[in-house]
Amino acid sequence: xxxxxxxxxxxxxxxxxxxxxxxxxxxxxxxxxxxxxxxxxxxxxxxxxxxxxxxxxxxxxxxxxxxxxxxxxxxxxxxxxxxxxxxxxxxxxxxxxxxxxxxxxxxxxxxxxxxxxxxxxxxxxxxxxxxxxxxxxxxxxxxxxxxxxxxxxxxxxxxxxxxx
Length: 164
Description:
Elements: H1 35-63, E1 69-70, E2 79-80, H2 83-107, H3 111-126, H4 128-133, H5 137-161
Helix pairs in contact: 1-2, 1-5, 2-3, 2-5, 3-5
């Protein structure tokens, strides 16, 4: 190779052309896992959490005969808790948890540990809602079970997808 040639020439290449390195695989948030697969698992976690809440609602409401009523605020009248609201709020919680995990993966030195601690704290605080808004002990128990079911699914499933 002469001092004037700009790059090394590989065997079998014409003179004056540089060797092109092979394409590197797409980066991922976990070693050996593609970003698309992580998104799929996180979406599945949000859907599973909504399914768990709907399952608790079905057992407590229609099957056990508990009339699920809750107040939105201290001065509001009690409203029925229907399956649509249960699923919608559970999905919203799942997407919020996913967003928080993604944010922590970008900014925290230990995102899995940080996310687990924050998620467990948010779950504990969220139990104040059913304890204060539920109308009747059966409703309070059912709403707490919904919160715990959603929290358990999200914490365990999203934790498995988190970067260490």
